[in-house]
Design a protein that fits this description.
Oligomer: heterotetramer
Strand order of the largest sheet of chain A: 4-3-7-1-2-6-5
Helix content of chain B: 25-40%
Number of domains of chain A: 2
Shape of chain A: globular
Largest sheet of chain B: 8 strands, parallel
Bound molecules: flavin-adenine dinucleotide, flavin mononucleotide, FE2/S2 (inorganic) cluster
CATH topology of the largest domain in chain A: Rossmann fold
Helix content of chain A: 10-25%
Number of strands of chain B: 16
Distance between the termini of chain A: 28 Å
Number of strands of chain A: 16
Order of helices and strands of chain B: EEEEEEHEHEHHEHEEEEEHEHEHH
Strand content of chain B: 15-25%
Strand order of the largest sheet of chain B: 3-16-15-10-9-8-7-4
Strand content of chain A: 25-35%
CATH architecture of chain B: Alpha-Beta Barrel
CATH class of chain B: Alpha Beta
CATH superfamily of the largest domain in chain A: Nucleotide-binding domain of ferredoxin-NADP reductase (FNR) module
CATH architecture of the largest domain in chain A: 3-Layer(aba) Sandwich
CATH class of the largest domain in chain A: Alpha Beta
Radius of gyration of chain A: 18 Å
Number of domains of chain B: 1
Largest interface: B-C, 46 and 45 residues
Distance between the termini of chain B: 28 Å
Chain lengths: ~260, ~300, ~300, ~260
């Protein structure tokens, strides 16, 4: 893994993108370290009285030339709400890049599966694959058509399929009810997924049953983000593993779900 | 130039900044952010005789200006430390201390003895104050008699610097410190975490798998400073102060209260470079206020 | 409609929201902000047998998510209370409790007796936990034996509801609570403030005239909730919970941990209308989560 | 005293006025309560992690028609620095009006004396006097010419004399070295003052020696601001008095200086 840095990044964009989502664009004065798909940042939120610890946020996109990273954030509480109020020119102290990356080859027939804010790390994953000449299929699950985030950008990097709970766009139902998982043959050799835990548990179960390689990115509560505190552990077949350093990506075969 | 050297009853530190056990991993986790050799030293994660899986997830809850943890001394055991961690640490030009925990006196003694065989570990910190384990831990640290017993037993098996870490969850911290001093400790460090709990009102469930856990962070600082002040004025051995230190000013508060060195704990999570921020800030403060030698600050509160 | 009535061992409250002594004056200071009669009750400033000037200024220091105070029970004495304050309070349609402090058992007893003669004061809160006075105060509350003695003595002289306020500065809060229960207390309230201190690093002087003082505010909440949970599961008398309550969620956390009623303290300084904010918030929470009777929440933490 | 209120006031102006001073203009949706000279407000500072308690700030000026109050603030630490960053449209939660007012008649030959940020309450005092047809003389002490705050406004309400430490404007020296205090006869029947403690102590000593009535406004540390906590006490001939309710104004004869 590349060197981790702690840096004050400058906010050069903070865009509301529907519902409780917004996208922060942060610029670094110095060259960015190498960032891998599914890695995350730990963000210090200074002016929220209720926010003591840093907040882990996936790295949604990276532009090495402009020296920017983007974070796609959903307002979940005080900390993220405070981030939503950042203005251009403000500084944000960020520790990054943190965590592992997908261990499965990003080169075969890959299906990326995301739900809700879990779509965040998949954009950079798809962009990363493109750099090496690969084009994943992408299945994104949303509550409703109006929740769909950054449709065109994902579509640049792969074929995108949608499921919505209310059927207002793509297929109706959860991602697991999508025809991809319910037709005769499943054309992918690996599934990489990020989303709400119930979705990932269902996916893990399906993948194990159908003997398809599957990795999921988890979101346990973190204090340090760098493997020092042992707070973020996930119970696995090999005992407690730190989600911040031995994850966030785990092969579902490892998990005790 | 400010002289930052301190001598903690024979343990020589190039400056008074150490790190708190359990918040700094094995040091190497912080190597991207901190030049480890600049520190007075660091204290690695609580080590026990046998490996421990620790407590189930969730182990952490945020609180007002602090956090609760219930890690429960997850570690790979003393032999793993000696074989795998020690070789990576032994050549660092700083003091690496091992925090030794246990659930019975024999375990403490045997763990200390094995650490004692490592030439480049100049001291252990005996943790008789962990609130996150069922047996032992804090139970030893909340009663002067049992605190004295475990220290006396370890003292016999361990010849180097023996720092004993005290629990703040007591009526009379001075009585514990004195018992530990009488039993042969070379120094005391305080405080460990405060026993606390938090409930999620939406789910009505405790936020920690173990219901209660240890509270740390700036929230506890005023109580920690008070305890350090009380202990420093009532024992002869040096005191290492900690609890909520984030800035150099926080560290200096502990020094003024009577601590000879300090530990940075939870602040490492807020700023992985917290230790060097504190160190640089102490130096700046000394320059600004004309302090030539850090010893002028130790116990330097005016009344 | 949610039923918010609670019965604290005979003391009937229209809702579980009280105020903490020393943070709500004599109630009237808050009359511009709060309809006092909406509260379950309020507890007036610590009252002693003789007038007290309290400690010198400075008496206050801000800390991370909390504050230290060293007021030292400044008050005009019990007779002044009976003559001057009581007439202004006696017709309020809520429970007015008097917080009784002292430096020896005789003082506690005599003060309690005189308050006992006031028909419209249904209860006293016996403060055996004030860290800000040299003699008595916290000393009584940190030892089960002396806690039991002062409560037993007051019990004989005082026939109405006797709530005893416990100090958190102890190793074993349950042992104190039990001693107090055995000595005849009708309920216990906890926690009083934690003994803390702070030093101004610029002047190197303590921030309080008395060096140490009592810490309150959200910083202490996790420890207070833990103590309430421990005590509520180990005594039969009701528990009144406090320590850092600012929001309705904070209050509900204490109820879930086992408190039958709660007190709002330092939060009154942050928001003079904090009590009604908490009360309205509790009602809203109950409606949202389908709680018909507040008693469903008391001790309702799931494990 | 009039009823105290707790209100969210809207920031309609936040002007930097030299050095570390700024002036907040706050508007109330409802009519303002009656405010008396030297009264203050307790301001809740929400997004400063280091600021737990409210901050007491004198009411610098009042406009009942526009329903605005003004606060003249000096950056002293985290709390006031955070206030300096408020922008138009932001809300500020304020408890006001608090404290007593001058007890001496505001009708005789009144000298107002202010130093540094202590000039803040004197503007409204002078405006208040004007309403009843009186015009005080005003002596303001500053470090240097460049520190002088809102010169023209004070001059609308009275004759203003200046002293500066470096002599760059008005007389050189402290206010106590000003010729007003050092000539044969002193033409004023009362002095009302606000400023740094050393200045007020010197003034108190002078007034007691010269048997001139003198009231000073004090700035003790406060927790509640409404007489409930007994933290802000000043030791007086009658024992401990709360600066927040029995002050901030005290007659120097009362003080144990
Ligand atoms: C590796 C990782 C990557 C993430 N990536 C993103 C992302 O790209 N975009 C995004 O919007 N969110 C992401 N999250 C979730 C994000 O960290 C939380 O939503 C955020 O911490 C909530 O903070 P808050 O102060 O707004 O809410 P809080 O008031 O703290 O909590 C609101 C809710 O979020 C949960 N939560 C609080 N702290 C954490 C934490 N440290 N880790 C996980 N959950 C927490 C709480 O249990 C609660 O249910 C990620 C989390 C992890 C662990
Ligand atoms: C009645 C009254 C009226 C005041 N009027 C004004 C005014 O009109 N304009 C103005 O700029 N300032 C005024 N002050 C002073 C102002 O309250 C402090 O400067 C402010 O509280 C500092 O807060 P901070 O967070 O910026 O600084 P902090 O970091 O809290 O402290 C910086 C310095 O201010 C002192 N201080 C901190 N809190 C208080 C407090 N509650 N009361 C007094 N001093 C404190 C500290 O001791 C320290 O020296 C007044 C104070 C009082 C009591
Ligand atoms: C996540 C975590 C793990 C800890 N593990 C240990 C430990 O293994 N041994 C120990 O003696 N103290 C342990 N502590 C306590 C700290 O060393 C320190 O005493 C405490 O956190 C107070 O200091 P602080 O407020 O600066 O963090 C731990 C604290 C935290 C937050
Ligand atoms: C300024 C101040 C004065 C207090 N005075 C008393 C008192 O007279 N008697 C008492 O029993 N407790 C007193 N207390 C303690 C509170 O009643 C309460 O127990 C404590 O503040 C914890 O609650 P909180 O965190 O909600 O404030 C005082 C607290 C403060 C902050
Ligand atoms: S968050 Fe600290 S080890 Fe993962
Ligand atoms: S600040 Fe509370 S009494 Fe004055």
């Amino acid at each position: 893994m590349s060197k981790k840095v702690i840096r004050d990044l400058r906010v050069i964009g903070n865009e509301r993108i529907g519902g409780s989502f917004f996208m922060l664009t942060l610029q670094s004065e110095d060259a960015l370290p190498v960032i891998m798909p599914a890695q995350f940042a730990e963000v210090k939120i200074n002016n929220s009285v209720g926010t003591f610890l840093r907040r882990p946020i996936s790295i949604h996109d990276v532009d090495y030339d402009k020296q920017t990273i983007q974070l796609l954030v959903k307002i979940a509480g005080d900390g993220t709400a405070t981030l939503a109020h950042l203005r251009e020119g403000d500084l944000l102290n960020v520790v990054f890049p943190l965590g592992n990356t997908f261990a499965l080859p990003l080169s075969g027939r890959v299906l990326l599966v995301g739900g809700g804010v879990g779509v965040a790390p998949l954009l950079f994953t798809a962009r990363y694959m493109q750099r090496f000449g690969f084009r994943p299929d992408i299945l994104l699950g949303y509550r409703s058509k109006s929740n769909i985030l950054r449709k065109e950008v994902y579509e640049k990097f792969g074929n995108v399929f949608y499921s919505t709970d209310d059927g207002s766009f793509g297929e109706k139902g959860t991602v697991m009810q999508h025809s991809i998982f319910n037709s005769e043959n499943f054309p992918y050799t690996e599934i990489l997924a990020c989303g709400p835990e119930p979705m990932m548990r269902a996916l893990a179960k399906w993948a194990l049953e159908h003997k398809v390689e599957c990795e999921v990115s988890l979101e346990n509560k973190m204090a340090c983000g760098i493997g020092a505190c042992l707070c973020c552990v996930q119970n696995t077949k090999d005992g407690h593993k730190c989600v911040c350093t031995e994850g966030p990506v785990f092969n579902v075969k490892q998990l005790l779900w | 130039m400010v002289n930052l050297n301190v001598d903690i009853n024979g343990l020589k530190l190039k400056n008074p900044v150490l790190t708190a056990s359990g918040t700094f991993g094995f040091g190497l986790e912080y190597a991207d952010f901190v030049d480890l050799e600049r520190l007075g030293g660091f204290i690695v994660k609580g080590t026990t005789l046998n490996p421990r899986e620790g407590n189930p997830y969730p182990r952490m809850a945020e609180t007002a200006s602090g956090m609760l943890n219930a890690v429960g001394l997850q570690n790979k055991g003393v032999d793993y430390f000696c074989k795998e961690n020690y070789p990576q640490l032994k050549d660092l030009k700083t003091n690496v201390l091992v925090n030794v925990s246990g659930s019975c006196i024999e375990d403490y003694v045997e763990t200390a003895r094995r650490i004692g065989e490592l030439p480049n570990i100049p001291a252990i910190e005996l943790n008789i104050s962990c609130p996150n384990v069922k047996e032992g831990g804090m139970a030893f640290g909340t009663d002067p008699k049992s605190a004295g017993e475990v220290v006396a037993a370890v003292r016999k098996a361990y010849g180097k610097h023996l720092m004993v870490k005290l629990s703040p969850n007591v009526t009379n911290i001075v009585s514990i410190a004195k018992a530990v001093e009488d039993a042969g400790a070379d120094s005391v460090s305080l405080v460990n975490t405060f026993l606390g709990m938090a409930i999620d009102v939406r789910t009505r469930r405790p936020k920690l798998s173990t219901i209660t856990g240890g509270m740390s962070g700036p929230a506890i600082k005023p109580i920690a400073v008070r305890m350090v002040w009380q202990v420093a004025h009532n024992v002869k051995i040096p005191v290492c102060g900690l609890g909520g230190i984030v800035t150099a000013e926080d560290a200096i508060e502990f020094l003024l209260a009577g601590a000879s060195c300090i530990q940075v704990g939870t602040a490492n999570f807020l700023y992985p470079d917290a230790t060097v921020r504190v160190l640089d800030g102490i130096e700046l403060y000394c320059e600004k206020y004309g302090v030539k030698d850090i010893s002028e600050l130790i116990g330097g509160m005016k009344q």
